[in-house]
């Protein structure tokens, strides 16, 4: 696609502009994108640490940075990661786990990805999750010697299992 401004070069930048509740897309070449008045925010890699600090209260200097520790696969150091704002490879997650965990918890609000359930598998996955929760509840009730409540949960598990066409299985 050609640039919608100069009509000479290949468009490599796509801008989505919203004005007066109207949204439009503009395709520009690199040269026109640098000159346009419509681009009011340019994201430069050098500002990543400052951006993270402003957005999440993360200060790269506040994390204990081992000076000689580097990733065995890509060779990047943790101080370089904090400067660049990105990891060098997948092994960096394991190598710098102790330094990354507090940062990722702060950014994502937890240490576990809960994600979305795919629509076509959603019913089966949700059913298994419900079964697992009921089994945990059943074990807890048995330990508390709340046998009447445990019998109700056991019956719920049997109904789910019969609906799925199998017997009760332990995971």
From TrEMBL:
Gene Ontology MF annotations: cadmium ion binding; cobalt ion binding; copper ion binding; zinc ion binding
Coiled coil, from the record: none
GO biological process: stress response to cadmium ion; stress response to copper ion
PROSITE patterns: UVR
Transmembrane segments: none
Signal sequence, renumbered to the chain: none
Domain UVR: 128-163
A Pfam family per the record: UVR
UniProt-recorded name of the protein: Nucleotide excision repair protein, with UvrB/UvrC motif
The species this protein was found in: Desulfosporosinus metallidurans
């Amino acid at each position: 696609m050609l640039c919608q401004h100069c009509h000479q070069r290949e468009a490599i930048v796509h801008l989505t502009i919203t004005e007066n509740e109207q949204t439009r897309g503009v395709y520009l070449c690199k040269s026109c994108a640098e000159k346009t008045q419509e681009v009011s925010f340019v994201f430069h890699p050098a500002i990543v640490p400052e951006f993270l600090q402003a957005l999440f209260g993360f200060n790269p200097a506040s994390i204990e940075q081992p000076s000689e520790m580097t990733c065995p696969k890509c060779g990047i150091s943790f101080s370089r990661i904090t400067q660049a704002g990105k990891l060098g490879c997948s092994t960096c997650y394991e190598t710098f786990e102790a330094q990354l965990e507090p940062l990722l918890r702060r950014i994502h609000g937890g240490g576990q990805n809960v994600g979305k359930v795919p629509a076509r598998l959603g019913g089966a996955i949700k059913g298994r999750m419900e079964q697992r929760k009921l089994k945990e509840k059943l074990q807890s009730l048995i330990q508390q010697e709340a046998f009447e409540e445990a019998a109700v949960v056991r019956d719920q598990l049997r109904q789910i299992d019969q609906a799925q066409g199998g017997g009760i299985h332990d995971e």
